[in-house]
Amino acid sequence: MKLSALFGRGKFVVSGEVGPGKSASAAETIKGARLMASWVDAVNVTDNQSAVMRLGSLAVCRLLKEAGIEPVFQITCRDRNRIALQSDLLSAAALGVENTLLLTGDHMVLGDHAQAKKVFDLDSVQLIATAKGLNGGRDLAGHELDTSPDLCLGAVVNPGSDEIDTQLIKMEKKIEAGAEFFQTQAVYEPAVFESFMKSASRFGVPVMVGIVPLKSAGMARYMTANVAGVRVPDPLIKRMAKTPKADRKKVSAEIAADLIRQTKGICQGVHLMPLGWDDLVPEIVSASEIR
């Protein structure tokens, strides 16, 4: 079911996320999605995440559909021109994939093919507008489609950005272009997220808070130092630092569930990005009392 329909019913929507591997087999990715499937409404499939070449998102989305799991097709502007982007969106619709998350994409210098040519023919706002145009029956060149898709269009926003006004301006542009819901960058500071939502709520578009379980103190420090708009408070870093390795998953789930409990009253959903700890999703969802 389209996420927009769930939001329309007033449902608090929960999504998970899987990242395909560097493999011609989707077996492990599907296995991970199955671990969380009963606890979420949909599962995002990343698109060559961090600019690392991996099994394609669209293929995995179709396999998830066949497995009875609702996918969210993530598609980035980094690797495709406007012809390929539109073609992949039509292909998603033809394969029964209804939910999309439309992104600019990480720069290739961050990935494992640093010499690859960047495309970025469109940016994320333009891609959203393009997808909305396809839904309306015309391609970006103005040509009429024989059959129109009916895609649900998602976008991203970074509530912890130091340039929050810029984020709100871009958020508004994405909504004007056709965005129907937002998933956020990882949130570890509920007060900062609440401040953001006080401004973003005026747009009237559902926002899903992004939650990334902490795997270690080192990960927390790295994210704070290197991921724009993400700051892990010192008490959480210290808590992970003093946690024995054998107990990290348990403590990580407790932290994630607590963050959800603190933010669920001010947003319309949660997006869990377990980064391989797919088996942790049921524990987090159960403990946060959103299911």
**Helix fraction bin:** 40-55%
What's the N-to-C terminus distance? 18 Å
Rg of Cα set: 18 Å
Task: Give a short account of the largest sheet.
Answer: 8 strands, parallel, barrel
Q: What's the CATH class, please? A: Alpha Beta
Mean pLDDT rating:
97
What is the succession of H and E elements? HEHEHEHEHEHEHEHHHEH
Low-pLDDT residue spans: none
Oligomer: single chain
Give the CATH topology: TIM Barrel
The tally of structural domains comes to 1
Total DSSP E strands: 8
Write the CATH architecture name: Alpha-Beta Barrel
Beta-strand content estimate: 5-15%
Number of helices, where a helix is a run of at least 4 consecutive DSSP H or I residues: 11
The backbone outline, from C-alpha atoms, is globular
Could you describe the 3D structure shown?
This protein is α/β, with parallel strands linked by helices. The protein has one domain: TIM Barrel. The protein is 41% helix and 14% strand. The chain contains eleven helices and eight strands. It has helices at 3-8, 27-37, 57-66, 82-94, 124-135, 164-177, 190-200, 217-226, 234-241, 248-263, 281-288, and strands at 13-18, 42-45, 71-76, 99-103, 152-157, 181-186, 207-211, 269-272. An eight-stranded parallel β-barrel has the order 1-2-3-4-5-6-7-8, surrounded by six helices. Helix 5 (124-135) runs parallel beside helix 6 (164-177), helix 8 runs antiparallel to helix 9 (234-241) and helix 10 packs across helix 11. The protein is globular and about 60 Å long. The model has no long low-confidence stretch (mean pLDDT 97).
